[in-house]
Write a structure and sequence with these properties.
The longest helix has 20 residues, at 72-91. The protein contains 7 helices and 5 strands. Strands 2-3-1-4-5 form a 5-stranded parallel sheet, sandwiched between helices. It has a single domain (15-196), classed as P-loop containing nucleotide triphosphate hydrolases (Rossmann fold). By secondary structure, it is α/β, with parallel strands linked by helices.
Length: 203
Amino acid sequence: MPQTPHPSPERRPSRLVVFFGLSGSGKSYLARRWAARHGYGYHNSDEVRKELSGVAPDSRHHVEFNVGLYSPEQSRRTYAALLQRAGRDLDNQALAGAVLDGSYTNGVERQKVVDRFSAQIVISFILCSCSTALTRERFALRGRDEQAVSDGRWEIYCKQKEGFEPPTHIGGARLLNLDTDAHVDKLIERVDAFVLPGPEQNN
């Protein structure tokens, strides 16, 4: 008699988590580690931006705000590519979901994420922020790190801050305001509690 095939285990629902905020907020350090811990695809806006422009990820580009590599047109290309990569990750059964890591200071770009994915999955936005003193300290450390991908520095942070109004809510998605002054392990626990149901927090 032919054997009855065993039913395949149900796949966990995919999730999309967007870590965003001003440069120096600690979002990338946290997002990369959270994604690796839970088996999510991870995409960083600075890495994608440089890849699209054909430059090395660790190359330094100390240009003025909103010009060159960081012009509005290059930013639109970058965030469009992030959407495409998230879509591929969400279709990949080997991954638990997708993590996007970028400033997303522009509400239009946040809305594009919601418009693209909210009908099919749960989207969680994690707004990362920290004290001014810690932001300065992080920029100082980044300046000495030869492998740092981000070109963010104090001048860019100040320009970003002028035009960024932190959202109080994001229609079609969930929003967590996260103070990143705490140790990364504590921050991961907070994100887990917000994003994941109970059993998955221990995976």
